[in-house]
Amino acid sequence: MPPSIRILLIEDSSDEAGQIQQFLSETEEQFSLAHVERLEDGLSHLRQGEVDVVLLDLDLPDSAGVATIQSVHSQFPRVPMVVLANRSDRELASRAIQEGAQDCLPKEQIDSGSLTRSIRYAIERTHRQLAESTLENSEARYRGLVDTLPVCVLQKDLDGRFIFANQAYSEFTGHVVADILGKTDFDLSPHDVAEKFREDDRKVAESGQQFRDIEENTTDGHTTWVEVIKSPIRDAQGTIVGTQAIFWDVTQRQMAIETLRNAKEAAEEANRAKSEFLANMSHEIRTPLNAVIGMAELLLDTSLTQTQRDYLKMVHESGESLLSVINDILDFSKIEAGKLDLISKPFDIRETVGDMMKPLGIRAGSNGLELTCHFAPEVPAVIEGDSHRLRQIVVNLVGNAIKFTEQGEIDFDVSVESTDGDNVLLHFQVRDTGIGVPEDKLSTIFEAFEQADSGSTRHYGGTGLGLAICARLVDLMRGEIWVESEVGTGSTFHFKAPFPINRVSPIGQPRSAARIQGTHVLIVDDNATNRTILDEIVRSWGMRAQSAANAEQGLTMLKEAKSINDPYAILLTDVEMPGRDGLDLITSMRAIPSLEKTLAIVLSSSDRPSTRGRGENLDISAFLMKPVKQSELFDAIIVALGVAAPEDDHEGSTASRLPRIRPLNVLLAEDNRANQRLAIALLEKWGHTVTLATTGKEAVQMWEANTYDLIVMDVQMPEMDGLQATQTIRQHEQTRGGHIPIIAMTAHALSGDREKCLAAGMDGYTSKPLRIQELHDAISQFFASSEPAAVSPPAAKRPSSMDWSHALRACDGDKDLLFDLLHLFLEETPELLSQLDQAIAGRQKDSIYRAAHTIVGSLRIIGPTEAGQIAVEIEKRARSENIEGVEKLSQELRGSLDHLLSLAVNVVEGRETLP
């Protein structure tokens, strides 16, 4: 019993409650009493969960009789209950216990001793009932689980009598379970077989050790094999009281082993027989595999979601890799005969290896392993060689490392051994933490049909051809291959090969890298190798990187960086980490107001839908599979940051015809994501540095802490709108001095709106959607231009059903930027509609206005639309607090937006071209 028993007394009589209190104070037990007079108050107290036992009067103002017991027990069945009755009535006491009470005390017979005994008995009886119920449930679950297992499970006592058998064993023997129990093996099996079973049971019972074996049984000329595990059964004191056997049919596996053994012997006896066997086997596998690859290619040409396309690409890539391996089994004969030739073509080694690592990364992740891929910075971007044969070597070596590693990591590393003019000698290493290779096998492991030992063949599978093919291919590349290993520690497979460097089409650092230089990024990964690789990659792009080894350390560093006004722009985190994983870290980060807007990119070794599902509501910018390619990571970062910098400048863009303004340090205050991307892209295209604030309050704080040349301020923002933020800045300037130009950016274009902005202290005014010329003119009035004014742009093409020319002009002709905005439009619109519907259902005028206003802002970039007009009407009604009829308008808006979404999908998926 606890040191102090917490008692809840539900009694409407103050006198009787005082008497109970007096009785409890006279005992040696430690009690704390809480008293309520009504059943409703008692139930409320119980919901707080701080009660050990309830003393319940049956006659209460809001309940009476047995119904009182039912009310308490139905809601709190685990709380012990003692009923206090007004009279001594055996029938009442019996009924009370049937309904869930543990005891029933007549009030006239209560004293300190009887009350204490009843409380102690109620607690002990409840605990005993819970324990018995738990035991019964546990036994039921065990039997339910074992009965549904596809393997045979049986238990015997020390005399060999069956005391348990599951359904699978019943079906295996053809006897119902009731007929099996109490019998012995001699009743169910031939005498010689039963004698062997009995001897095995005795060995297990006497030794106390598990027994495992593969048993062969030949009946009527038909041979079957079962794999059996026998182990002792112990009671609570550890005494062996019987044996348990689990077995399953392994006939197919044993037959496969026999087939492989016969194939090996045949291959050693005659090369021709070996070649025929390999050809037939590979042909049988290639036939369905070709259909898989072909259908995957056809599906890739159809309309798919991005997730479906990613999955299908992985299926296609894996199929191609497998087909390459199968084809090379056939090539083994060609290699030995000297008839296999290498095909040399230029290829991007990082992209090629990165693509082949994706399916391998999923295999490693499913086994709980970490697969890393690292390229030294000096490795050339493009080399010449046979990428297909290089893929075969890498897949074999990394695949073997995954197969023979049960825990730890596999590291793939590429470095430059030496350079000689236009040739480079590359050094490839595959390190694992697996079982290792015995020293006496190191010299023969690369020979055909050789493996480290027969035990690993049985446990891990394999034909022994993989390493032999690798050795032959490396030799054809004029390279060398070897292995360093220690049993129980792991292995490192090395191979070196020379490659010509292709300098015709060098792939340099992405041009957009200049846009992300100096960006503060935090890398969180429990694997030190991964942290080193990611740190090296992002630093090569000029980013400022720091690392953390777990979620707790990462969250601390996020808070510290924010506290010193040097926050991280991006969190780059692994998902699978011990303790709190990466998604837990992001969840904690989103719960902190000062960090909730931090961009997050996650890396995962698992592609389980459940993992992606957990991150759906965390506003994750990208979900990347490990090991991640450099190009893949770079694209994810620039998309997350909203950087729009196409590789080829758009000819005739407005930026080339506008007067130049010196580079400015601009603070942009905007809460709409689409408007953020557009404004940042335009300002950065003109050479300005942009810092983003998502609320008026945040804009004021950032202005106070930093120095800016200009503020572009949205008028409508949460927490503090643009007008209030401007007024606050102007008030502070009266004491600190200075005057920073502030340009209003608003979706309102009504008479008087400009005057409101200027009255609040703003210096300029531009309306949404942003127009290139208008925004540039608003900025240039404060900063001298270095060139004469630009000529007027040519007339726009006639708009289609959706005014794409208008949208394209809003993006300064940048089609890549427009594609990004359309993706964002497709992503955000359903969520905005849901928010609007919820606000309308709750008759929340402010929320209706906010949701409609956000939809208006998203649509203004596209241009004049019917949906935009409907959203403006909803916004006006909410503003005037007259929301009658908004339900109908909302339905019209949804229909109009559905049409716009379908048109946007046509553009994004290439079914409609931009002007």
Q: How far apart, in Å, are the first and last alpha carbons?
A: 80 Å
Radius of gyration: 38 Å
Strand content: 15-25%
Any idea what the shape is? Answer: flat
- How many β-strand runs? 29
Query: Tally the helices: what do you get?
Result: 32
Structural class: alpha/beta
Mean pLDDT: 80
What's the quaternary structure here?
single chain
A few lines on this structure:
This protein has 915 residues and is of the alpha/beta class.
What topology does this entry show?
Elements lengths: L4 E6 L3 H12 L5 E6 L2 H9 L5 E5 L1 E2 L2 E2 L1 H10 L5 E5 L4 H9 L4 E4 L5 H37 L3 E6 L4 E4 L1 H7 L3 H4 L4 H4 L2 H17 L3 E9 L2 E13 L5 E10 L1 H19 L1 H30 L5 H32 L7 E4 H18 L3 E6 L6 E4 L1 H17 L5 E12 L2 E10 L21 H7 L5 H11 L3 E7 L3 E11 L12 H4 L3 E5 L3 H13 L3 E5 L2 H13 L6 E5 L7 H9 L8 E6 L4 H6 L7 E4 L4 H12 L23 E5 L3 H13 L3 E5 L2 H10 L4 E5 L7 H15 L5 E5 L6 H7 L4 E4 L4 H9 L23 H7 L4 H27 L3 H16 L5 H14 L6 H23 L7
Helix pairs in contact: 1-5, 10-11, 11-12, 12-13, 12-14, 13-14, 14-16, 19-20, 23-29, 24-25, 29-30, 29-32, 30-31, 31-32
